[in-house]
What does this fold into?
Amino acid sequence: MNNKSAFVNKTVEMSDKPVTDVSKSVAFISQPDLFDPYLWPDNRQNNLIDIVIKMGPREINEDIYPKDENNRNNDWKHMTTILISHEKSPEHFTAYKKWHECELKLNLGRCIDNDLQRVMNTEVQYWKSILERLISITLYLSKHNLAFRGSSDKLFERNNGNYLGLVELLGKYDNNMKEHLNRITTQKLNLAYYSKDIQNELINLMASKVLEIIQQKVQVAKYFSVILDCTPDVSHSEKMSFTIRFVDENNGNLQVAEHFIGFREVSESTGESLTELLLKTLKENNLDIMNCRGQGYDNGANMKGHKKGVQARILALNPKAAFMPCGCHSLNLVISDAASQSKESITLFGIVQRIFVLFSASVYRWQVLKSHLPNLTVKPLCTTRWESRIDSVKAIRYQTKEVYDALIEVAESSKADAGTRNEASSLGNQLLDFKYRETGYADASNSSREKAESLGIDPIIKEVRVRRKKTFFDENTDQDFLISAEERFKREFFYTLVDTVRESIKERFTQFENHKQLWGFLYNLEKLPSSEYLLACCKDLHGALSEGDSADINSVELYSELKHLSSLLPIGKGSPKSALQFIHDMKLVDIFPYTWISLRILLTIPVTVASGERSFSKLKLIKTYLRSSMTDDRLSLLAILSIENDLAQKVNYEEAIKQFSELKARKVKF
It folds into this structure.
C-alpha cells in the first residue's frame, strides 16, 4: 500500500472560520505531511489550502533531514547542503584535529600504537621485497622464453616448473625468500603469491606497464606507422603481429623505433576482417588512426590489394597513411620468380635438395660428407625464404669436387643399401653435367668453364637430337633445330632468367619509385635540387599530406625553410636523420616547424616488415608443441615481455607493486 492510499479515506474536519493561528490549525490533521502535495487528502476543503498558504515555504535545516532506519541521512537531493553544513560543524573540526594529531604522532613515533605501526611497516617492506623477487623471476623467464609451470603447482615437488623452481633456488641464498618459504611450510600461509593465477596477473601487470610506456612514447611522437604480418602457429591458428614505428626522442637522442604491441588471432584472412582487427587494436592501445602516416605489409593480395586490400581500406579512412610494400619480401619474390621461370632452374634446385636429403638421412652418410667438406656443409631449401637457396647452392658451387667425391664414396660403400647407392651414383653423374654449372654468360661463362676444367669435365653442353617434324611444300621451315645446344641453353634459360628478373623488379618496385618521386628531395638536404623543382616537390608533398582543409605542412613555408636549413647544416649532416638531430640539438624546431614534421614523417614510413618476422621467431620459441594450449592473451603478453625486454627492465617496480596490491585488495596493504 502506498503512502497516498493511507490518507485517502481519512476524515478531515474543517472549520469555516478563517485561519489565524497555523500551529493550532495543523493539529487536527492526523499524520500527513502538508508540505508534500502527494499526501494531501482527496476530499480536502478550502480551509486546507488556507492552512498551507499560511505555513509558507518549507525551511530546511540539518535537524529535519529525512533519516533511514539507522538514523543516517538519506536525502541525496540536498546532500551538498548537508556536507557543507557538516564541514562547518564543531564536530567535524574536532574530528579532523584529532586525526591530524594522530597522524603526526604516528610519523614521529610518539603514538601509543607506535610498536604496532613499526610491525606493520616491517611487514609491508617484507611483502614488497617478496613481490620484487617474484617480478624479477617473471621477467627472467619471459626474457628467455621459458615455460612457467610444470605438471605440479606445489613447492618442493618434482616437475613443478621453472617459476617455482626459481623460487626454491632463491630461497637457498636469499634471506627474505628463505623466510617466506619457511612461513609457507610452517604457518601454512594462504598469502603465498606463487599460484598460477598470481603468475598470470604478474605477467599481465608487467606487460601492461610496457604497453603504457610505448603508448606514451607514441603520444609524444604523434605520427606513427603500422607494420603487420601474419603466420600460423603450432596450434594451426593464424596470428597477426602488430608493430608500431615512430621517431622516439630518447634523452635527446632521436631514434627510429619499432615496438611490438602484441599478437592477435585472425578469424578471416580477408582485407575487411584484417582492417577491422587493425582498427580495434589501435583503439585498444589509445592510438588514433588519423595520426598514422605509413603502412608496411608483405606482398599478399589481401594486404596490398588496390581495391579490397588492407592498405586500400586504410587509405579510404586516412589518405595520409601511405602504403609501402616490404622491400625484403619484394626482393625475395624476385628471386622466387627467377628460380621458377624454367625447367632447368627447377631441376637444378631439385638436385641440390636431393643431395641434402641423401646425406642428412643417415648419420653415416653425414659423417662421409663432413670428411670431404671441411668448411661448408650442404643446406636444405626453404619454401618461403628464397634467399636461403643461395646458401644451398654456395656449398656445392665452391666445393663441387668434394661433394662429388662424397657421393662416389657412398655409391661404392657396402654399408648403404642398393637404393641409396643408386641415388648417390645418379647425383654424381648429374654433377658431371656441365650444364648445371653454367650460371651465366660473359664473365660468368668463363668462370664456369674454368671450374669445369678443374674438375676434369669437358666444358661443352651435350648436343641432344631434336625430333624433326615433317613439313609440306606450303609450310614455313622451322630452322630452330639448326642452332647449337649452347645457344639453345642461352635462349631458353639465361635470357628467360634475365627477362623474368627485370620484369619482376619493374612490377614489384613501382611503389618504391613513387616514394622516391614524392620524398626523394629530402634524402640529401646538403644538395637541394633547383629552386623550381624544389618548389614543385614541396607542393606535391603538401598534397600528399593534406585531407580537405587539414594539412600537415605548408608547401611555401617548407620551401623557404629548406633553403635556409641547407646553408646551416654542417658537412655530412644532410641525411634525414642527421638533419633532424641537428634541428633538435640546436633548438631550431620553432624556426623550421614544417621541415621538422616532414623529416619525422619520412623516417616513420616503414621500409620492411622485418620486425614482424622477428616476432614470429619469438612466437615459435614461446608457443611450442608442449605449450600449444596457451591462450592468446597470455601468448601476446609473454611476447611483449620477451621482445620489449629492455623496456620491461625499466618498469617502476614500486608503482607496479602498488597497482598489484590495489588490484587484489588483499589483507596486506601497501
Remarks:
- Confidence is low (pLDDT under 50) at residues 1-31, 436-443.
- Strands lie at 224-232, 238-250, 253-265, 292-297, 322-325, 546-547, 550-551.
- DSSP finds 29 helices and seven strands in the chain.
